[in-house]
């Protein structure tokens, strides 16, 4: 079957960024948000305490508005991702952000009223339906409310966020759209590529020398605008730090941990266990360098495909990738396969390789439609297939939670990355098992091991960089040159000085550093990778009956802390090294097999 490379947005709202349907939706949202504000202002917990019927009305309206806003924002951001030059889409996205701020102001009022309810009455409230089903997120909201400033002060911060904090994030996206990377082809002709296209070309180049030349051009492109990116990053971090300070903390890790519902001791033990196991990963990197005929890998060699014998890396058509993913999903979960089939057949995915798209990939939910939309640039590499499976994992996570209250669907990034990484594992493990030759098996194992190296080292370098950057940012602006120094220092530490070259402007080219929604958008990936490895190991032990247990775990991801989730569904303690070591041992198994198979090729 042939699948469309472009997503269907007209089934959400017809007319693109000029959609009259969307305009009607936005005007309705404005009225509903005003109604919500008035309803919240009038709500008196003391009068309502008998059965809290008025609060039920408040939360029903909040849920309706939340679903509508998410639907509209996924649409507008999707249009802008697919065409960064769509000025109307940018304008719509900004308008919807303003509505989010208005809704947030009213939610602040509601939260402060929760705080005003005494503990005994609050406990009684949480015994009543439907509040009992959302006891965890309601308690979480009330606890966070205790740190809020006055209603007026919070309103001012929200008002300044759009053109301040979020404005800097928008500026980053606009700057990225102007980045052009000049690569020379085999005939000596120089072509100019967007950031997304250049990243794909660099990642799929076949020899180390070509990749290194491309990396140098890539560095030049980002360095040419480094002062602008440095200004942007400094102001984003500065806003965050001042906001944290206003709310009583100078610990810049407090909010990321709170957001991920994660204890600091859990994060620390994860990184500590990884660091103790890095020598095995360095062993893999050194072997890969030997296979490529070089002394040490460069930054871009780590994830580049390796070939032995007469093997050539496979190129997938989009249709082949779709069938490949669906077939392998079905080996674990019929529901995952069914969801993927719907996504391909109903054109949920924007995959075309063309100019004008933003770099990267993501999955966004459409709660009213009970669908998702996936954005990426597909050029046929095995890495692209993994990205596609990864994003479909996100879509599956949203799908299995579609009937839950909005509050019970707001899972954090660390557990969000669990579902997506699990989907990748299902694909990669099956392909290694079914390899038709030793050379193919080596290539596929290399891809798995490179993924682990990314999680243990690349992501760790991001975490180390951001930690150092935020610490220095407390004392003032950090220059672009200093940012590059911090970046290389972090990369050398994370990779244990095992590479020949590094990526000084990674702080500019990696969009995750500029995400305004999620602070420290790095460690959740590594957490999700190892957490999903642990879940995957459990699925192999338990066989076909594990699908329902997996879905039950996903449905609980916004209803308890991460540690409680692991204890309930896996019976493990995340604050101890045992679980992390058992997950890392699976990586060691892959590396050992890789070292054994490749020994005769060096």
Automatic annotation (TrEMBL):
GO MF, one example: metallocarboxypeptidase activity
One GO biological process term: proteolysis
Domain of life: Bacteria
Keywords for this protein: Hydrolase, Metal-binding, Metalloprotease, Protease, Zinc
Cofactor: Zn(2+)
InterPro entries assigned to the protein according to its UniProt record, in alphabetical order: M3B_PepF_2, OligopepF_N_dom, OligoPept_F_C, Pept_M3A_M3B_dom, Pept_M3B_clade3, Peptidase_M32_Taq
Entry annotated with the keyword Ribonucleoprotein: no
Record's keyword annotation contains Protease: yes
Domain spans labelled Oligopeptidase F N-terminal: 117-178
Domain spans labelled Peptidase M3A/M3B catalytic: 202-584
Pfam families in alphabetical order: Peptidase_M3, Peptidase_M3_N
UniProt signal peptide: none
CDD domains: M3B_PepF (cd09607)
Cofactor: how bound: Binds 1 zinc ion.
Family stated for the protein in its record: Belongs to the peptidase M3 family.
NCBIfam families per record: M3_fam_3
Name by which UniProt lists this protein: Oligoendopeptidase, pepF/M3 family
Organism encoding this protein: Marinilactibacillus piezotolerans
Taxonomic lineage from the root: Bacteria, Bacillati, Bacillota, Bacilli, Lactobacillales
